[in-house]
Write a structure and sequence with these properties.
This protein is an alpha/beta fold. The chain has helices at residues 14-25, 65-74, 112-116, 123-138, 143-146, 151-157, 162-177, 186-198, 213-228, 273-284, 286-289, 330-333, 350-353, 357-371, 428-446, and strands spanning 5-10, 30-34, 45-48, 51-54, 60-61, 80-82, 87-91, 98-101, 206-209, 231-234, 237-244, 247-254, 257-269, 297-306, 315-318, 325-328, 340-347, 380-392, 413-415. Strands 1, 2, 10, 11, 12, 13 and 19 form a 7-stranded mixed sheet that branches. Strands 8-7-15-16-17-14-18 form a 7-stranded mixed sheet. Strands 5-9-6 form a 3-stranded antiparallel sheet, with no helix packed on it.
């Protein structure tokens, strides 16, 4: 049995890392447990066929203050880039590329010219789109009503055709909510558009990870935790969590070696919702069982290496094609000179999860050739598929009532993760905010840990100002 700690954090994703750093900053003695042999949770890199590939294409926005602050602490800022102004290259079969670009005016005028010229809507559809955006800005924030309807049905009632939803609204909704507008919660959809595009002009500028996730998150997070004095135990699979002697004990097994237990006065559980339910049902009963109702939504990424450059854009969106978003990852992955590695990110990918690699290759390579004429004469050197069957919680109507707060019915037992009630979709920003909030409540329970006033960390609650989470693709 390990000596008692002030706090134990279960889960080494962004939520757990943020919580552990905040707790340590306040003087708490912290142990972080992670079942994998790496940190980063759902944001990680893999080595495949000589390339370092991210499991998914995570991006963020200029206004993601919490996430960008964490990267600054890691020293990872040199590996990311933020656009000077929001600009999304839009590709469609048989059409000239179009750049959906904001101007310097305040919202919603900052997108007015881009929408007025958007070629994938009719003139009437462009006027309707502007009216729809204005209606979203005026929507009443009645959570129960918003969470009961889909974004798609609301858009339809406000003059948006199916074609307009597919060509414009899903361009943002699908990657941020991991569901198309027709299936997504109006509450979360309204949040995405209001915070990302309709409140501040600059907050929606897109940020890119130009290095790999292992360079940007996993390795520097481990170094930051070590500097903060956090005891990090990788390969520790938490199997049970008990309430003992006014605190908590986490018991687990790492590989084939019994890791014993870790005791602490406070505990932050920062694992996915299904795992958290299984771990905490013995303590919380039906309250934890309800979290299983959040369900999950998958993401599939296709990794295509051509023998030459076929795309001149660092990233692009697709309209009228199964290709949702593509990213040039040639330099980051260390692809051979003269080749080009494109990653295709597919959100809400329930269909693709069930398809074989051959079936995906047969459908998506011709689709890429329709968008990228130079691909028609290029040779495909590599075609790989990575799948995350439970990439995010399912952001469908009713989800708001299922997301728990950071606090549980047991004092000192806190929750963190994108699935908790941050008000945000499942995003990098939401993960970091949830970790800050859990740490703030944990410190209040601990009495400020090593002499700091209760709640005295730099934790930020989910109600704190900031722009919406990362958009476009995860």
């Amino acid at each position: 049995m390990s000596g008692e700690r002030d706090a134990v954090v279960v889960g080494g994703g962004l939520a757990g890392i943020s919580a552990a750093l905040d707790l340590a900053d306040a003087g708490a003695r912290v142990t972080l447990l992670e079942v994998r042999r790496r940190l980063g949770g759902a944001a990680y890199s893999v080595q495949r066929e000589g390339l370092e590939m991210d499991n998914g294409q995570h991006v963020f926005l200029r206004g993601c203050d919490a996430y960008r602050g964490l990267l600054a602490r890691f020293g990872s800022e040199r590996h990311v880039r933020v656009q000077e102004r929001l600009e999304i290259p839009v590709l469609s079969p048989g059409a000239r590329p179009y750049r959906l670009r904001r101007n310097g005016l305040p919202p919603p005028l900052h997108l007015g010219l881009a929408l007025a010229r958007y070629p994938h809507l009719s003139p009437r559809g462009r006027v309707a789109a502007v009216r729809g955006a204005l209606a979203l800005m005026r929507i009443r924030r009645e959570v129960a009503a918003l969470d009961a309807e889909t974004l798609g049905s609301w858009l339809s009632r406000h003059g948006q055709s199916d074609q307009a939803i597919a060509a414009l609204w899903d361009l943002i909704a699908l990657p941020t909510l991991n569901l198309p507008a027709a299936e997504a919660s109006l509450e979360l959809g309204e949040f995405v558009f209001r915070r990302g595009l309709l409140t501040s002009a600059s907050d929606g500028d897109i940020g890119f990870h130009e290095g790999t996730l292992s360079q940007i998150i996993a390795a520097p997070a481990q170094e930051a935790l070590a500097r903060a004095g956090v005891d990090v135990r990788l390969g520790f699979g938490a199997q049970e969590l008990h309430s003992v002697d006014g605190g908590f004990e986490v018991v687990g097994r790492g590989g084939e070696r019994d890791e014993g237990g870790v005791r602490a006065r406070g505990a932050v559980v920062a694992v996915p919702h299904a795992r958290a339910a299984g771990l905490l049902e013995p303590l919380l009963g039906d309250a934890a069982s309800r979290w299983r109702g959040l369900s999950a939504s998958p993401i599939v990424n296709l990794h295509v290496v051509y023998d030459r450059q076929v795309c001149g854009e660092p990233f692009a969106a697709g309209v009228g094609t199964p290709v949702q978003y593509l990213f040039d990852r040639t330099a980051a992955a260390g692809a051979p000179s003269g080749t080009q590695y494109l990653a295709v990110s597919l959100s809400g990918a329930a269909r693709e999860m069930g398809e074989s690699v051959d079936a995906l290759r047969e459908r998506y390579l011709p689709a890429l050739e329709q968008l990228l004429p130079r691909a028609r004469s290029a040779r495909v050197e590599t075609f790989l598929v990575t799948r995350e069957h439970a990439a995010t919680f399912r952001a469908a109507p009713g989800v708001g009532a299922l997301r728990p707060s950071a606090r549980t019915s047991l004092p000192g037992l806190l929750l963190a993760g994108t699935w908790t009630d941050t008000g945000w979709p499942a995003t990098l920003e939401g993960a970091v905010l949830s970790g800050h909030e859990a740490a703030a409540h944990a410190l209040a329970h601990l009495g400020g840990a090593a002499g700091e006033p209760a709640g005295g960390s730099h934790a930020t609650t989910s109600a704190a100002p900031g722009a919406h989470a990362e958009a476009v693709a995860r």
